[in-house]
Design brief:
Strands 1-5-4-3-2 form a five-stranded mixed sheet. By secondary structure, the chain is α+β, with helices and mostly antiparallel strands. It has four helices and five strands. It is globular and about 45 Å long. It has one domain (3-111): YaeB-like fold (2-Layer Sandwich), CATH 3.30.2310.20. Strand 3 and strand 4 (81-88) form a beta hairpin. Helices cover 39% and strands 26% of the residues.
Length: 117
């Protein structure tokens, strides 16, 4: 069995910090923060939990910045999304879940070029 670790990008760390600070004042942000932590726990036992995205739909921003070859989407509370990639760890018995971004539905739509109808 492989050991799974979770690593966050700078963008994901910044967003998680904002959410955790706002969680003290807002029930919605607290629910979102708890949702993210639950998903981290799930990903530690099942790295394929998220919905895989087609390679052709991986935004160029992610390809250029991180060189990822796979991308998964996890739905969070309040219509937020967490995007992650799975990469090999330091040894053959390790895998790393690399959290690329945590974003709200509006930003998610922009990132993937979806338009309102």
């Amino acid at each position: 069995m492989k050991t799974i670790s979770i690593v966050l990008s700078k963008s994901a760390i910044s967003q998680l910090d904002l959410i955790s600070r706002d969680a003290e004042k807002s029930k919605r942000q607290k629910a979102l923060f708890l949702s993210i932590n639950r998903k981290f726990d799930i990903l530690k036992s099942n790295f394929q939990y998220g919905d895989p995205m087609a390679k052709a739909k991986i935004p160029g921003v992610y390809l250029a910045a991180y060189g990822i070859t796979n991308l998964f989407r996890v739905e969070l509370s309040n219509y937020w999304r967490m995007l992650y990639s799975v990469v090999n760890g330091a040894t053959e018995s390790e895998l790393t879940v690399f959290v690329v971004e945590i974003l709200d539905h509006k930003e998610y739509d922009k990132r993937f070029g979806y338009k309102k109808r």
